[in-house]
Amino acid sequence: MADSVPSSARDAVLKESTALPEDVPQIRGYDFNQGVDHRALLHSYLTTGFQASSFALAVQEINKMIEKRLEPVDKEEEQQDQQGCPGCTIFLGYTSNLISSGVRETIRYLAQHKMVDVIVTTAGGVEEDLIKCLAPTYLGEFSLPGKELRQRGINRIGNLLVPNDNYCKFEDWLMPILDQMVLEQKTEGTHWTPSKMIHRLGKEINNPDSVYYWAYKNDIPVFSPALTDGSLGDMIYFHTYKNPGLVLDIVEDIRRLNSKAVFAKSTGMIILGGGLVKHHIANANLMRNGADFAVFVNTGQEFDGSDSGARPDEAVSWGKIRIDAKPVKVYADASIVFPLLVAETFAPHASRLTVDKKGD
Q1: Is residue 181 within 8 Å of 197, Cβ to Cβ?
Q2: Count of CB atoms within 10 A of residue 87's CB?
Q3: For 245, left (φ over 0), alpha (ψ -120 to 50), or beta?
Q4: DSSP 8-state symbol, 33
Q5: Could you read off the pLDDT of 101-125 as tens digits, one per residue?
Q6: If you placed Cys at 45, which of 56, 259, 327, 352 could pair as Cys (CB 3.0 to 4.6 Å)?
Q7: Share of the chain above pLDDT 70, in %
Q8: Whole-number average pLDDT of the chain
């Protein structure tokens, strides 16, 4: 039996390290001996590691968007800029489940204070906001049996519960508006698009709890190319039997959305979730050879090749994010992360972001 450790084993276990650069952060978490300071806790995420550090990088990326948005425009540039573009045009996208959840109030805050410039969402992301102005959504459990809920007329969205009566109330509210839209189309030649319809619905709901009321008030365009894919589509379908003829033009909307990216000084994308909203915003930014800033928050994985799960680097390969950008993806539930992101980005800058809008 040998008296010394084999050199091959020693060399493998005790391999010498090369020195890391001096500016590489050291891992250190929050010390609760300092008391409970939530802002300091969130600041400590940068050196915590894993998705905590991704969260902190997302905070930095969004704050870069905000600083760029607030850059002063010289008089000559202002005269040349016919569209009144901010220093950074911020695109916000989100899926319908976030409007169904309490994240709706965070999104409403951004629209209320005109902190974003363009919104893209799904049909559910529109209708669930409007329906909440008519009747509440409730907290349930993920495990509630679908069969029993169906028999009771209760719809489940994760651990949220929506009585089917809510959609009946939505139909009662929406049908006269659809009648008026058809009338205006026939008598005034109104050319309806999904974004114009959402603008109209925001006006009609006339409720400050609504995201789309504030989008209407602040003239923030809301794009939803699949607007018929939800309760809105159900109601439009029913309406065709009563008063046919309504036309929604998605072609006009795609030109309008793409133009928001093409003519922007710089752009930032904040995308919660995946699917249509993620690609629709990213593809618009392809028209300008990519967004300058990007933050994705979702739980999607890339191994199945889906766009929903794709990392930002895949969007770089398509020209949807600029090659010199430093995009961030946070693998997390947006219902946890997004309110905290806003708390560390838009909310602290509220006085600066709204200084020119207080008279609106």
Answers
A1: yes
A2: 16
A3: left
A4: G
A5: 999 999 999 999 999 999 999 999 9
A6: 56
A7: 95
A8: 95
Burial level of 192, CB count in 10 A (0-12/13-18/19+)? middle
Cα(274)–Cα(336) distance, integer angstroms: 16
* Sites in the chain below the pLDDT cut of 70: 1-2, 74-84, 355-360
Using DSSP, state whether 243 is helix, strand or coil. coil
Say whether 326 is catalytic. Answer: no
Q: Residue 108 corresponds to which tokens in the numbers above?
A: 């409403």
Query: What gap in Å lies between CA 56 and CA 25, rounded to an integer?
Result: 13
**What tokens appear for 123 in the block?**
């049909």
Q: Is 303 helix (H, G, I), strand (E, B) or coil?
A: coil
How do residues 250-262 score in pLDDT, each as one tens digit?
Answer: 999 999 999 999 9
Q: pLDDT at position 359, please? A: 41
Burial of 136 (0-12, 13-18, 19+ CB in 10 A): exposed
Catalytic-labelled residue, pool 114, 320, 326, 329? 320
CA-to-CA distance for 200 and 183, rounded, in angstroms? Answer: 14
Characterize the bridge pairing of strands 89-94 and 118-121: parallel
| CA angle at 127 for the pair 59 and 139, rounded to the nearest 5° | 70
